[in-house]
């Protein structure tokens, strides 16, 4: 544990207190965000430790998600269960789920993977719903903030995006449900044919369609059978055309702006390409 440079001294001390005999198995930290993800094992069990940096706000959301929204998935072994957490120190410990990441695995091309993921998402979304008349305004404000910040979206596209955003509806009623925020193969595990879900640091109340956006631009676009299997598992298609387009535009703008900010050229190209496709 003393070699884990991603932890602050208070975080390291608390992990030592909680798991005094644990040893590091793997550092799963992504490197693009201020979150350290460690796999530890010892006499007290096999766990995942997540620690947030100074600018991190995902740990608090993930802790809240475990306390409020994860029971339908965690109780069946399809999501991790929280062991212990401390919001002030930005530290979360969950049990370790067996499996390997779907992203980059042959299971990423298997319709059955998406059918199961659709079933799990429907279960997650279905536990709560509430109405909002401010969602469209929030989405527009979020997109405008990204466009006002540093990015490499070309000027003509920026003008077209601003015109379209200015024409978006305001005050319309939208249903919000518990959403994962990054529902895609890089946050899915496959274990002996069973799909499990990880990383709930972006969980929040949003329209259901927001959990379809990243799949649509990546996996659905390369194989329509994966989309059909996902919808079969989910049980319906919530993508009302107007809200769906606004969601995709907001996602593309945010991806291009965020990736430019953190220096991820591959993600930036993905966002820029999606903007170009949507405007064309």
Features:
single chain, 280 residues, alpha+beta, Phosphorylase Kinase, domain 1, Aminoglycoside 3'-phosphotransferase, Chain: A, domain 2, 2 domains, five-stranded antiparallel β-sheet, three-stranded antiparallel β-sheet, 10 helices, 11 strands, 44% helix, globular, Kinase-like_dom_sf, Aminoglycoside_PTrfase, Aminoglycoside phosphotransferase domain-containing protein
Main pleated sheet: 5 strands, antiparallel
| Topology order in helix (H) and strand (E) letters | HEEEHHEEEHEHHEEEEHHHH
Low-confidence stretches: none
Task: Determine the number of helices (DSSP H or I, runs of at least 4 residues).
Answer: 10
Per CATH, what is the topology of the largest domain? Aminoglycoside 3'-phosphotransferase, Chain: A, domain 2
Detail the topology: elements first, then pairings:
Blueprint: H1 9-18, E1 23-27, E2 35-42, E3 45-52, H2 58-68, H3 71-74, E4 82-86, E5 91-95, E6 100-101, H4 111-125, E7 130-132, H5 135-148, H6 155-166, E8 174-179, E9 188-191, E10 194-197, E11 204-206, H7 213-222, H8 224-234, H9 241-262, H10 265-279
Antiparallel strand pairs: 1-2, 2-3, 3-5, 4-5, 6-9, 7-8, 8-11, 9-10
Organism: Brachybacterium fresconis
Pfam families: APH
Domain Aminoglycoside phosphotransferase: 55-240
């Amino acid at each position: 544990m003393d070699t884990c440079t991603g932890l602050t001294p208070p975080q390291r001390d608390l992990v030592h207190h909680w798991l005094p005999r644990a040893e590091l198995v793997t550092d799963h930290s992504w490197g693009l965000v201020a979150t350290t993800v460690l796999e530890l094992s010892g006499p007290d069990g096999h766990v995942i430790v997540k620690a947030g940096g100074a600018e991190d706000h995902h740990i608090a959301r993930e802790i809240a998600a475990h306390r409020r929204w994860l029971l339908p998935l965690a109780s069946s072994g399809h999501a991790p269960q929280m062991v212990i957490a401390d919001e002030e120190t930005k530290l979360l410990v969950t049990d370790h789920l067996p499996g390997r990441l779907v992203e980059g695995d042959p299971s990423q091309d298997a319709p059955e993977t998406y059918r199961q993921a659709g079933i799990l998402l429907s279960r997650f979304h279905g536990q709560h719903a509430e109405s909002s008349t401010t969602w469209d305004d929030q989405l527009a404000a979020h997109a405008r903030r990204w466009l006002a910040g540093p990015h490499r979206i070309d000027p003509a596209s920026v003008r077209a995006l601003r015109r379209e955003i200015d024409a978006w509806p305001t005050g319309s009623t939208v249903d919000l449900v518990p959403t994962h925020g990054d529902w895609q193969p890089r946050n899915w595990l496959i274990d002996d044919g069973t799909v499990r879900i990880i990383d709930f640091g972006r969980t929040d109340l949003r329209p259901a369609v927001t959990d379809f956006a990243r799949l649509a631009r990546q996996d659905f676009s390369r194989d329509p059978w994966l989309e059909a299997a996902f919808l079969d598992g989910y049980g319906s298609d919530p993508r009302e055309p107007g809200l769906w387009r606004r969601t995709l535009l907001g996602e593309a703008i945010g991806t291009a702006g965020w990736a430019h900010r953190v220096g991820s050229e591959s993600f930036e190209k993905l966002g820029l390409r999606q903007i170009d496709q949507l405007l064309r």
